[in-house]
What we know:
It is a single chain. The chain is mainly α and about 190 residues long. The protein has 9 helices and 5 strands, in the order αβααββααααββαα. The chain has a 3-stranded antiparallel β-sheet. It starts with a helix and ends in a 14-residue tail after the last helix.
Amino acid sequence: MLELAILGFLAEAQLPGHELRQRISRLTGYSRPVSDGTLYPALNRLTKAGLIERTPAPEGGSGRYVLSLTDAGRQDMVRRLRKPAEHEITDFARWFTILAFLSLLPDVAERHAVLRRRLAFLEAPASFFYDGDTPLRAEQVADPYRRGMMITARATSRAERAWLHEALGDDDTPTTAGQPSSRTPEQRGTTC
């Protein structure tokens, strides 16, 4: 997802490396901090692949440069947005990176196809905790902290599913949208 974030931010504007790092860190937050040891090797890979280019910064001294997206980089970014991997749909932090740049995908129908994949994932029954193969609901869990986890995940899932239906222009929200799902926030941001 780091590479998609790099490509996405550079699709919006040319940036010096330190500003790009700052934007990515703000997007990924505390859960996935971006270190120089992670960012700069990724920049080198993308540069060698011809997806981004470095040019000297006009006002900078030696060693200062600005990063920009190439045409090949834009095509690669669109490809990544058009067909995200399954784990990019199911992992909450990865999903947010897709969502942050989804508007850069030119075709609305393709954007909606990505949103529908996330919605299908959120509407499938799942839980943090199971009785055999049966997902448990928050009301079935005695531990107050586990129940709190599940209630929080349920609220997050309901809000996200409501937004997805709105973004997709669904006239009738399926009955499952009002029913809690129980995937983990790490897996789905869904309900328990």
